[in-house]
Design the sequence.
């Protein structure tokens, strides 16, 4: 399982530390997420309903047709067109390899419009505070996105048009993220304080938790009210189904999550269960790496979480070892059958068994016509899970069994060196302080955006 690269930003990257635009391309190209699905929807809290003083028996005067989906809006005078929605939607469809049903497209279209409204409110509020993102800065970020696709900006423009999107759509998203992060940095961050006693308390808790489980979590957070809870839960389930069918968790987090970590694909970073809301902590504790759970009821809405990795707090992890490897590979001629490939792979495996350490790898490669490539400082954790399990138990000089495919050829890895992982150190006081500040900034940012929505004049067309 390849980890994917997401108002709960408890440990992950902050909205106010600047845009990481290159992650957009990773989100669009990310591989699908698989894993078992756990759904534990928490019961609604009745406090909000009681505050509204709603009657128990409700008579609805008039009709609300759920099949009528309005695709455009005017937000405080700024028009969001159907084309804006279509082009942003195309990015999501691209992330799913185009495999989105017509019914799902309509659901996604509604959510995309909501996201565009929030984005517009954020840009407008930044402008009202004399914050303007220069075109040159947007251009630089856009160039980094294009470079991540190994394309020039002009080539990337053409690629986006072929996908039914546009450069303008991504540029608008870049502008919104930059403008909002600067607004938070000016209006919220200076008023967030963390004391030394709070930092010391965190350090003490981490030392006390040494050896306990720690997770790297991805989250998609969707806000909900008692009135629209059922609809939001249905939307969350649809997102999960799309991810299970091969969609990118990071892409969905970037487009739909209402947490500040949406800009980094929903990545919360490494967290312990006690750092999560009880509902998420309970779910994470029961999950394996690669699993998705949700929708999970949390204060203010629902969350979808994805366990990207797992480790022990302040404990050396064998999978963090650095390896020096030699790769020997042979390719198959065009038209090779499965039986022929198996025969060739078996012969290759027998020849590799004669290797006595990496010193003989180049010599053997020359004899059997194999390509030999050196790979130094490879972190074991970054390799495919199947290879991790094999390499964990290999000594220096030993080789893996052959692996590959008819199209990619067959290869082996020979372990030439291993630097074992040292015991993990606790984050320093500065890092912990930044994490605590980040959490508080994000909580206030949620309230800020909620107030902007409440005061907005929105005309749906």
Sequence:
């Amino acid at each position: 399982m390849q980890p994917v690269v997401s108002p709960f930003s408890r440990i992950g990257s902050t909205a106010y530390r600047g845009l990481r635009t290159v992650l957009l391309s990773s989100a669009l190209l990310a591989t699908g997420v698989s894993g078992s699905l756990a759904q534990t929807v928490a019961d609604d809290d009745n406090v909000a309903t009681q505050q509204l003083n709603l009657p128990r028996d409700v008579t609805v005067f008039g009709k609300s047709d759920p099949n009528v989906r309005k695709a455009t809006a005017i937000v405080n005078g700024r028009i969001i067109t159907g084309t804006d929605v279509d082009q942003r939607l195309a990015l999501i469809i691209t992330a799913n390899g185009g495999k989105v049903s017509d019914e799902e497209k309509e659901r996604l279209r509604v959510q995309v419009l909501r996201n565009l409204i929030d984005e517009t409110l954020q840009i407008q509020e930044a402008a009202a505070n004399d914050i303007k993102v220069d075109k040159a800065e947007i251009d630089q970020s856009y160039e980094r996105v294009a470079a991540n696709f190994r394309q020039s900006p002009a080539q990337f423009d053409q690629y986006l048009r072929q996908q039914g999107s546009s450069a303008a759509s991504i540029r608008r998203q870049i502008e919104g993220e930059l403008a909002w992060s600067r607004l938070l940095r000016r209006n919220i961050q200076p008023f967030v304080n963390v004391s030394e006693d709070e930092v010391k308390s965190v350090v003490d808790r981490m030392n006390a938790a040494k050896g306990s489980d720690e997770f790297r979590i991805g989250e998609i957070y969707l806000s909900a009210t008692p009135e629209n809870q059922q609809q939001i839960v249905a939307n969350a389930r649809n997102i999960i189904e799309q991810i299970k069918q091969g969609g990118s968790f990071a892409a969905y987090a970037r487009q739909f999550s209402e947490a500040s970590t949406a800009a980094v694909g929903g990545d919360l970073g490494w967290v312990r269960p006690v750092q999560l809301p009880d509902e998420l902590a309970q779910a994470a504790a029961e999950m394996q790496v690669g699993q998705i759970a949700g929708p999970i009821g949390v204060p203010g809405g629902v969350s979808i979480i994805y366990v990207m990795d797992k480790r022990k707090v302040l404990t050396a992890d064998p999978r963090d070892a650095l390896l020096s490897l030699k790769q020997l590979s042979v390719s198959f001629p065009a038209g090779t059958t499965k039986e022929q490939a198996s025969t060739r792979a078996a012969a290759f495996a027998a020849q590799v068994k004669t290797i006595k350490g990496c010193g003989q790898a180049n010599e053997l490669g020359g004899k059997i016509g194999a390509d030999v490539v050196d790979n130094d400082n490879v972190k074991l954790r970054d390799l495919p899970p199947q290879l991790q399990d094999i390499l964990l138990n290999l000594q220096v000089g030993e080789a893996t069994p052959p692996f590959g495919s008819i199209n990619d050829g067959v290869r082996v890895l020979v372990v030439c060196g291993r630097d074992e992982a040292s015991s993990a150190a606790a984050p320093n006081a500065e890092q912990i302080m930044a994490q605590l500040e980040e959490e508080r900034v994000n909580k206030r940012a949620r309230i800020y955006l909620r107030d902007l929505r409440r005061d907005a004049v929105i005309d749906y067309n």
Summary: The chain has 15 helices and twelve strands. Residues 102-128 form the longest helix (27 residues). Confidence is low (pLDDT under 50) at residues 1-49. The domain at 318-419 is CATH 3.10.50.40 (Chitinase A; domain 3).
